[in-house]
Amino acid sequence: MNIVALILIVLMASTLQAATGFGFAIMAIPFLLLLFDPRDAIQLNIILCFLISLIMVYKIRREINREILIRLIKGGIIGILPGLGLFIFLDVRPLKLLVSILILVITALLVAKIKFQQSKLKELIVGAFSGLLTTSIGLPGPPLMIYFAGAKADKATIRGTTIAYFVFVSPISLLLQLSMYHISTGVWTATLWSIPFLWLGVFLGQWLFDRLDQHRLQIIIYFLLFCTGLYLLLTTL
């Protein structure tokens, strides 16, 4: 394991997560896959995403929209088990290809100023897709990013509600994976190395959040969605 590479990945990804509420998995997974076995990379990503969300959630508790959060969690519970089935039994390549195309198409629509109307049903569906992608390919963020960007939610609500959702969905996903696959010693070692740099990333990300206006956040979300879609597409073909 390359410790320096791991530290840089964790520091950049946690800074992005703390600043926007998204981005840890999107930035970390492509590089973690270069350092670890795919299942180890996904499990490490879920552990670190949970830890950074846990570190932040109390501080940002007033930013959380609890009604939206409850609906996202209900949807997440629906999606987690099918995602686990994909992780264990099926080839996730077709799923990755479909998700990559959908992300790129929807991102193009968002850039073209297409808006979504918020609704309770949409929030359940978004939560379900996020739960499915968490346990299957370790990427919970894109459905939430698409929904919040299309609904033009304010930056505080986006960050607070998303991080609170990750606090819930990440440990459940990990526990379900543990019922089938143990966590390797290498993952635990990487986690211990990463914790100090998660804290540093939270500090830097908060500094950026205070200086980030709504327009710049939208641009960052579009960029992350485009990178995610392109990454999934290229690694699947």
Key words describing this protein structure:
single chain, 237 residues, mainly alpha, 10 helices, transport, TSUP, membrane, TM_pro_TauE-like, transmembrane helix
Structure description:
This protein is mainly alpha-helical and about 240 residues long. The protein has one domain. It has ten helices and no strands. The two termini are about 25 Å apart. The relative contact order is 0.21.
How many discrete domains? 1
E-strand count:
0
Structural class: mainly alpha
Q: What gap, in angstroms, lies between the N and C termini?
A: 27 Å
Q: How many DSSP H or I helices? A: 10
The Cα radius of gyration reads: 16 Å
The percent of residues in helical segments reads over 70%
Question: Which percent band covers the strand fraction?
Answer: under 5%
Shape: globular
Mean pLDDT: 85
Q: How are helices and strands ordered from N to C?
A: HHHHHHHHHH
Can you summarize the main beta sheet?
none
Unreliable runs = none
Keywords: Cell membrane, Membrane, Transmembrane, Transmembrane helix, Transport
Transmembrane segments: 42-60, 72-89, 95-112, 124-150, 156-176, 188-209, 215-234
Family: Belongs to the 4-toluene sulfonate uptake permease (TSUP) (TC 2.A.102) family.
Membrane topology: Multi-pass membrane protein
